[in-house]
Structure formats: structure tokens, C-alpha cells
Design a protein that fits this description.
Rossmann fold, alpha/beta, about 25% strand, seven-stranded mixed sheet, 6 helices, single chain
Length: about 180
């Protein structure tokens, strides 16, 4: 099987990155992660890049950085798919348009509900009975692109933000890989 090149954008712990790397090492998985970009110098996910010898770049967002240079790098590396995995910055319109239908994101709610940040807090505050995660294409509106896949999680009366996050992340780790298989099927 010919695998397509993929890049993963991260900001933090890299739990979804780890799941994607594990899937990408399976023979029949359609992508190979050959580049990682982080907007956070101390992102724990960068340890995974080093462990698995995946080249990475840290974006210094305290300086005005053009995503044009990132875009050129990704084209040189023949990137077919960009996975946002806990990447906490909004990509500019020009970058999104250059990679139209090639950027996907995972969001910890059942979109279109609870777009943006603090989803677990808002879900619990509104006494929802069900939540989950959504994988979607990235467009120019926050968490509004075409939905690829959703996975649901039941909310128990004793759930906290932390327990809910743990349950949703467990679903995310399977859902992201399943979505990528669906895209290239």
C-alpha cells in the first residue's frame, strides 16, 4: 500500500498524536506521519516526535509568522493531509484555502454544539446527557466544516470535567484514525 504523507499540528500533550502515530505504523493505514508542527515549544507531544524520529517544527507565534513558509514546506514534503490534534490556534484563511479539503480537526463535542473552548465545562453546566467528539474538515468558520465522523459518550451524574475529558479522549483516539481511513477509502 502506498501511504500518503501527513502532517500533524499540535499544541499540548499529544494524546491524539500518539494514537495517530500508532495507527500510521499499521500496514494498511493510508497515511504516514512525516512532519509535526507545534505552536508551543514545551508541548509534550514533541517528545513523541523525537521518540519516533519524526521531523518537527516549532512555530514562534510571538513573532509575526507567515504561514506562507509553512505552506511551502508542506508542499515540498508532498503533504496530502493535515491533522489538527489539539492545535489551539486558528489558521488563517489563505492557509486554509491552499489546503482545502486537506485539513481535518478533532473537536471534543458533538458539533455543531459547543464550538470553541471549554466544552466540557459548558456541557456539564447545561446538564447534557450525551457528548462526544467530532472529526471535521477545517473551513474558514470555527468548528463548522463538513463533519466526517462523530463518536458519542454518555454523561454520568458524577462526571467532572476531568472524567468527561478522559472518556471523550478515549473515543477520540479511535475516531481520528477511523476518519482518516474513511477519507481515503
Amino acid at each position: 500500500m502506498v501511504k500518503r504523507n501527513a502532517c500533524v499540528f499540535i499544541s499540548g500533550s499529544g494524546t491524539n498524536l500518539k494514537a495517530l502515530i500508532k495507527s500510521s505504523r499499521e500496514y494498511n493505514f493510508p497515511i504516514k506521519i512525516n512532519y509535526i508542527i507545534s505552536d508551543t515549544k514545551g508541548a509534550k507531544g514533541l517528545k513523541l516526535a523525537k521518540l519516533y524520529k519524526i521531523p518537527f517544527r516549532i512555530l514562534n507565534l510571538s513573532k509575526l509568522i507567515s504561514l506562507e513558509s509553512v505552506s511551502r514546506e508542506l508542499h515540498k514534503k508532498n503533504i496530502s493531509l493535515i491533522c489538527l490534534a489539539g492545535y489551539m490556534k486558528i489558521l488563517n484563511k489563505q492557509f486554509i484555502n491552499k489546503f482545502k479539503k486537506k485539513i481535518i480537526n478533532i473537536h471534543p463535542s458533538l458539533l455543531p454544539k459547543y464550538k470553541g473552548l471549554n466544552t466540557f465545562k459548558r456541557v456539564l453546566k447545561n446538564k447534557e446527557k450525551l457528548t462526544g467528539c467530532t472529526i471535521h474538515y477545517v473551513n474558514n468558520k470555527l468548528d463548522s466544516g463538513k463533519i466526517i465522523l462523530k463518536k458519542r459518550v454518555f454523561i454520568e451524574s458524577n462526571d467532572t470535567e476531568e472524567t468527561l475529558k478522559t472518556k471523550v479522549q478515549a473515543k477520540e483516539h479511535c475516531a481520528y484514525s477511523e476518519s482518516i481511513i474513511n477519507i481515503f477509502r
